[in-house]
Amino acid sequence: MTTTTLPSSARPAAAPRARHGAATARPAWQRPALAALLLLTAVLYLWRLGDSGTANGFYAAAVQAGTQSWKALLFGSLDAGNVITVDKPPASLWVMGLSGRIFGFNSWSLLVPQALAGVAAVALLYATVKRHFGAAAGLFAGAALALTPVAVLMFRFDNPDALLTLLLVAGAYCTTRAVQKASPAWLSLAATALGFAFLTKMLQGLLVVPGFALAYLIAAPTTLSRRFVHLLTAGAALVVSAGWYVALVALWPTSSRPYIGGSTNNSLLELALGYNGLGRILGGNGNRGGGGGGGGMQNAGFGGSTGITRLFGDSMGTEISWLLPAALIALLAGLWFTRRAPRTDLTRAALIVWGGWLFVSGIVFSYMSGTIHPYYTVALAPAIAALVAIGARELWRARAATVARLILAAMVFVTAAWDFTLLSRVSSWTPWLRWTVLIVGGAAAVAIAAGATAAAARRTAVIVALTATLTAFAGTSAWALATANQPHAGSIPSSGPSAASGFGGFGSPGGFANRGTGTAGFPGAGSATTSNADDLTTLLKSTTTKWAAATNGDQSAAELELSTGKSVIAIGGWDGSDPAPTLSWFQSAVSRGEIAYYVSGGRGGMGGGGNGDIATWVAANYTAETVGNTTVYKLTK
């Protein structure tokens, strides 16, 4: 028969836990299964990790600088001489920089912390979902996160998104604990995690706050006034955990710290609200986006056109959307079935936590007019994984009810059909896989809808469940494995097989920047050979000044730093528009003999930041020489 509410037997029950030394009811398979999940995740994230070298050279150069200067590590400076920072807060650089100081700066010390952050995120997601929905659901959620292609990409890369995702999952775990017992301590811990998420990637780390706060306000088992007080306390914890560093930067004398890259007035708070805040959402403040014009590879690399279908489009679809339709079905069905549940119902609370996370972040990503890249969507992966796991578990338990069975079948079929669509976008890659997923997944959906699992023997039901699960994971797993099997570098990496990395090219798989020795990336360098690049590298390695060179733009400076191990000034920051360093400061540094060479070209416009003025002054007062295919000016006597 058809019903609109789940039977009482399908209501959630907390997973059994040992209390006060009592014997635990934990299934014998639970710990080995968790160990296997984490071990396989570690293998997936560490496999051929060194092949990516220094991955995103922009952040790698900042990490290298942090291993050479504690001040550079504290502020996230691009150079050990502390002229200018990267255009993000430095929390993720702290982790990688400390690893580099302990083990020496290399590809593995740079990227292993990212991989371990991924393993930790999987473990925390498992613990969060398991707490109220059992070990099987926790394992499903952990595996879904581990096998999301964009998660495999980011947990093997040196962008801030790896630490950001771990901190968001930590916040969800603490919020789940807080909601269960109306605990202000756990809620404040959740807020602290989000404060450090802000110090990792600024406002993106706060997109989960509405869902977390709403879940606590609705479901925490205490009075309304206490719930408000607890939320205010957590808000204070959030401000303190994020604000201490903002205050430190603001109070530190500007003359003895680097310029805050990406800001217009040397302020971290302005960077958070401007270039990395409203500028990202609305456009402007130096931001550009796929929805704002352009086409082809550029448009795809910047997220594609804005709109509600953006997460499913050519740019982001294969990164994140493999299980997204199933997650949306699970969320809507779960909210409908729990509409009459008690206020403190833990299933609905979990749906609000994860659904609020997915809804707010998804809408922001879909309609951002400023700079957005497909890999940003890794922040959605934990929410999608949790919703699918919770929905599948609850619907499976209630499969005796026709409506639950039909919704579960719809989740299985829609996933198979959407995987078929995504795999068809690269039709030459494993064409047999998409047909297998569609046919087997469709058969499993029909079996579930027909009631085979409701009345069949346990063994038959388990076979159908495993078939549905394996087909749901087939597409995303294949794409994830292909991602792990190739190196990635540059500023805009993409997941999947090499045949699918069309917009991530420009000389390197998965990114817009060059790999290897960076000097080939300089405008004016032409088709620089390895020999030509080595000539410039050798020249700068021989310097003994505070800065080996200065050049235009962060990317160019980063390439030189990584190839030489020396400090290089990035004139104008990321794109040459930052007002640092000024011409007067540059002239003073040259007069003190602190800069050996000016390297002509580089990435970044000739306007703003004193970039053009410095180039003009150097050309008027020093003699050009050619090293390889690059024009340089010697600034020391």
Descriptive account of the structure:
Residues 87-241 form the Glycosyltransferase RgtA/B/C/D-like domain. The chain contains 24 helices and five strands. The chain is mainly alpha-helical and 637 residues long. It folds into two domains: 28-397, no CATH class; 518-634, no CATH class. The protein has a five-stranded mixed β-sheet, with helices on both faces. Strand 4 and strand 5 (630-634) form a beta hairpin. The longest helix is centred in the first third of the chain and has 40 residues, at 107-146. The chain starts with 29 loop residues before the first helix and ends with a strand.
Structure described in brief:
This protein is mainly alpha-helical and 637 residues long.
